[in-house]
Design brief:
Layout lengths: L6 E2 L6 E2 L5 E3 L17 E2 L3 E4 L3 E11 L6 E10 L1 H9 L12 E5 L14 E5 L7 E5 L5 H8 L3 H12 L3
Length: 169
C-alpha cells in the first residue's frame, strides 16, 4: 500500500498532487531591484553582494519530518562577514571544502509563517561537498524555527506550511 503524497487544500479546496517539501527565497531581504544597475552589487542563485559592503550566501535550513525519512527545507539567505564570504568563494569549487569550519552569519530571510520573525537569527553555515549548497544551522534557541530544526515537524505541519505559502493571506 503506497501513501498518497498529495493533499486537499483547506484554503482553495483543490487537490494538490504533491506536498511541497521545499521553498526558497530568490534573494536576501535587503536586496531590491535598484541594486541591479549598481557596479558594486550582484545577485546570483547562491551569492549576493550589496554595494560592496553586505555579503550573503544561500543555503538550506533542513527540518526532519517525524515518522519518515523526508526532509523539509527552507532555502534562505545568510549574511557573512567579508572575510568569510571571500573564503567561501575561494573554496566554492574545491574538493574537500566540506572540511571548512562553519561560517557564522545572520539569517537574512524573513519567513512570515513565524510570528516571532526570523530575520537576524544567529546561524552557522556549513559548507558541503561541491555541488551541494550550504546547510544552515540555527542557534539552538527557543525560537519556533530553531525548535523545529532540532526536533522535526509532522507531515501535518508540512501541509500547514504548504497552504500558507501557496495561499498567502
Amino acid at each position: 500500500m503506497s501513501i498518497d503524497p498529495g493533499f486537499t487544500c483547506s484554503s482553495c479546496g483543490e487537490r494538490h498532487t504533491e506536498l511541497p517539501m521545499s521553498y526558497s527565497a530568490a534573494a536576501p531581504d535587503a536586496w531590491n531591484a535598484g541594486f541591479e544597475d549598481d557596479a558594486d552589487s550582484m545577485l546570483s542563485s547562491d551569492q549576493c553582494v550589496i554595494k560592496g559592503h553586505h555579503f550573503f550566501i544561500r543555503g538550506m535550513i533542513e527540518i526532519p519530518v517525524i515518522g519518515s525519512t523526508d526532509i523539509f527545507s527552507w532555502g534562505v539567505w545568510v549574511s557573512l562577514s567579508r572575510d568569510d564570504f571571500t573564503r567561501a568563494l575561494d573554496v566554492w569549487n574545491a574538493e574537500g571544502r566540506q572540511a571548512e569550519k562553519p561560517y557564522f552569519g545572520w539569517l537574512s530571510t524573513e519567513l512570515a509563517l513565524y510570528s516571532e520573525g526570523t530575520a537576524d537569527l544567529k546561524t552557522n553555515a556549513h559548507t558541503r561537498p561541491v555541488g551541494r549548497g550550504f546547510s544552515i544551522e540555527l542557534e539552538p534557541t527557543g525560537h519556533p524555527l530553531a525548535v523545529e530544526q532540532r526536533t522535526g515537524i509532522t507531515r501535518e505541519r508540512v501541509r500547514e506550511i504548504a497552504m500558507a505559502v501557496l495561499h498567502p493571506a
